[in-house]
Amino acid sequence: MSDFNDQVIADFKQNGGQPGGYFKNAPVLLLHSIGAKSGQKRLQPLMYLRQQNDGPWHIFASNGGAANNPAWLHNLIANPDIDIEIGDGTTIERVPVRARVVEGEERDGIYAEQARRFPQFAEYQERTTRETIPVIELTRR
User: Fold this and answer.
1) How many whole angstroms separate alpha carbon 59 and alpha carbon 139?
2) Counting Cβ atoms within 10 Å, is residue 101 exposed (0-12), middle (13-18) or buried (19+)?
3) Smaller CB count within 10 Å for the chain: N or C?
């Protein structure tokens, strides 16, 4: 997975925030987080949902439908003030954000919209043994 992520990150940076391959035509951001235990900087490419141009970004701790949450979720809960990188195909902007786990009906509506746009997210929810896949809101600080 590390080699895959490294390639997506390189592609993201080379193409102004619009990677190709598996993520062609998908909204992708780079999540800069801090390890909860190690304090080390981490970088993770993730698909996101942004329903309004000036609204928050939502990311999904799907972990491909695995039984456990991805490590980056634990890191965000421990250190919610982080940065993301987003791009428009020409320019990449680094944005300081605050992470918040979305719950209840609000979470359900956001996840349903992501699954409507990208059906693999519905498959992830069906495949996992977790009750729900966490949704995280990233709001500009």
Assistant:
1) 11
2) middle
3) N
CA nearest to 47, candidates 32, 36, 34, 62 = 62
Contact 111, 97 (CB under 8 A): no
Crossing angle for the helix pair 104-117 and 120-127, to the nearest 10 degrees: 130
List, for residues 6-22, the tens digit of each pLDDT value: 999 999 999 999 999 98
Tell me the whole-structure pTM to 2 decimals.
0.96
CA distance to 5, 6, 64, 119, per residue, from 1 (Å)? 6, 9, 11, 21
What's the token pair of residue 45? Answer: 């490419």
Closest CA to 28 of 57, 52, 65: 57
Q: Tell me the pLDDT tens digit for each residue of 59-117.
A: 999 999 999 999 999 999 999 999 999 999 999 999 999 999 999 999 999 999 999 99
